[in-house]
């Protein structure tokens, strides 16, 4: 709404989009992490190893650990959240969990 923003309008709009995507990814990340922690306690070391749910969790576990390994290599929030396809990865994990 400032009359001085004209010069910076494009940059400001890009930052708004970037920060909105980071916020969306972080929201999904927290939900996935909470569900993963809960399910890990159920399926790791359990006798349910051969059930369909355990097989689905195994897929979720591999995907989640892959993301966490990539994040540990480059732990900056912007890089981790804006990694190509990261939002979609968390959505697919959430779909498998629910």
Can you describe what's shown?
With 98 residues, the chain is mainly α. The protein is built from four helices and no strands. The mean pLDDT is 90.
Radius of gyration: 18 Å
pLDDT < 50 stretches? none
The end-to-end distance, rounded to whole angstroms, is 42 Å
- Series of secondary-structure elements, N-terminal to C-terminal: HHHH
Helix content bin: over 70%
Number of H- or I-type helical stretches: 4
Biggest pleated sheet = none
In short:
With 98 residues, the protein is an all-alpha fold. The chain has helices spanning 9-43, 52-73, 77-81, 86-97.
Throw out a few tags for this protein.
mainly alpha; 98 residues; 4 helices; 76% helix
Which helices and strands appear, and what pairs or packs with what?
Elements: H1 9-43, H2 52-73, H3 77-81, H4 86-97
Helix pairs in contact: 1-2, 1-4, 2-4
């Amino acid at each position: 709404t400032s009359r001085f923003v004209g010069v910076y309008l494009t940059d400001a709009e890009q930052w708004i989009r970037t920060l909105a995507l980071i916020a969306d990814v972080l929201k999904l990340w927290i939900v996935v992490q909470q569900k993963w922690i809960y399910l890990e306690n159920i399926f790791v070391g359990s006798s349910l190893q051969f059930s369909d749910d355990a097989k689905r969790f195994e897929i979720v576990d591999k995907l989640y650990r892959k993301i966490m390994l990539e994040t540990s290599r480059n732990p900056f929030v912007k890089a981790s959240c804006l990694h190509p396809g990261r939002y979609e990865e968390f959505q697919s994990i959430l779909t498998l969990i629910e």
